[in-house]
Design brief:
With 304 residues, the protein is of the alpha+beta class. Among the domains are: 82 residues, Sandwich (Immunoglobulin-like), CATH 2.60.40; 88 residues, Immunoglobulin-like (Sandwich), CATH 2.60.40. Helix content is 16%, strand content 33%. The protein is built from five helices and 21 strands. Strands 14, 16, 17, 19, 20 and 21 form a six-stranded mixed sheet that branches. It has a five-stranded mixed sheet with strand order 6-12-11-8-9, with no helix packed on it. A hairpin with a 2-residue loop joins β16 and β17. α3 packs antiparallel against α4. Its main location: membrane.
Length: 304
Amino acid sequence: ITQLLLLLLLPPHLPHSPSNSSDAGQPALAAGHPIRHFLLRNLKINGVERFHRPLRPSPVEVWGDETPTPAASLIFLLWFLAAPGGGRADDPPKSVLILSPPWINVFRTDSVTLNCGSPDPSGDVTQWFHNGTVLGIQTPSYSIQEITFNDSGEYRCRTGGSALSDPVRLDVYSDWLLLQATGSVFLEGEPVVLRCHSWKNHPLYKVIFYQDGKALKFFHQNSNFSIPRANQSHSGSYFCSGSMGHERFTSSVFNITVRARPPEILPEVEDENVVSYSLLMHTDVPDEEEEERNHLDYENVPNS
């Protein structure tokens, strides 16, 4: 963005001194502004593709013999600092939103606490967002007692100088039995924990967990079902059943997706800063005809 602003602010040409004109008494042709030429040829779009001016220069846009002025050198320095890795500070780390208990789906009247953590200890004020609306809570812990349907939705937070956290969705239900989960989408190797939750925490026994209709695990007394390291075979539709009193109940289906981890992408080594510094020291930049020759060489419950 800084490079684009510099490009817009620079004049398209630098005037020659009249003494350099080939025809006495005639105004000299304006040489192409060397910094502007450099920015145009080296500006990167989204860090991937280069933006080139037309390779055939117009008669008035040719490189002159001017020595960069102090102001021009300052503009080069600003471009250098704005280039990737050229002194620009990294984006601040994100805050982290954690649910306690960790379930992303709960019963109406359950209690939930949202905690906002931040690696930046400089600030003591926390901002909370619910479905994009700022809440009047400024503490790092936000407790909801007897949650309602209106509390369903997407939550985010931010503490101190940290960036906004990733969204965490909380859904509220009303039924006799609910299969609770710590998430709905996981990466391979992450743990998955499921819980068969009864309305009002009534005693539950003879609990069975199912995946895609097949029984996975039986507990005589209610207990959590854990997958320490998930893989793609654990993707599927889950539900649970259990006995309360003399009746047996079955939860609704909860879908879980386990995705493959993306391959690690090593950062591309950039040499733009070296080029920028070199241009600050040398004015003998190749002309656009040489650029053209080089360029041609390299051609994804109950109801309430």
